[in-house]
Amino acid sequence: MNTAIICVSCGNTFDPHYRYCPFCGNRKPAPLPLGKMLDGTFQKIEQVRLKNYLLRLGTLEHTLETLATELDRFVASKP
């Protein structure tokens, strides 16, 4: 199985036998336990999920306000 290191500085992948990233010269990071690596990933996923949720909520709120305004106009136009 081929493995690669992802540089935390520039994002390029390189051979794990290298001590430094050949693209930017950043030192290879010390290995992290799997749990620590996944924590950061899941935190990013949760941030994106929350951001998308809030965007959808804002869109729904705007739509409801528009519908309420249209309903008020409709009711006001009836004798």
Characterization of this structure:
With 79 residues, this protein is mainly alpha-helical. It has two domains: 1-31, no CATH class; 33-79. The protein contains one helix and two strands. The protein has a two-stranded antiparallel ribbon. A hairpin with a 6-residue loop joins strand 1 (5-6) and strand 2 (13-14). The chain is rod-shaped, with a radius of gyration of 25 Å.
How would you summarize this macromolecular structure in one to three sentences?
The chain is mainly alpha-helical and 79 residues long.
Give me the secondary-structure topology.
Layout lengths: L4 E2 L6 E2 L19 H44 L2
Antiparallel strand pairs: 1-2
Q: What's the main sheet like?
A: 2 strands, antiparallel
Given the structure, what is the number of helices?
A: 1
Order of strands in the sheet with most strands: 1-2
Domain module tally: 2
Summarize the amount of helix as a percent range: 55-70%
**Radius of gyration based on Cα positions:** 25 Å
Report, as a whole number of angstroms, the end-to-end distance. Answer: 77 Å
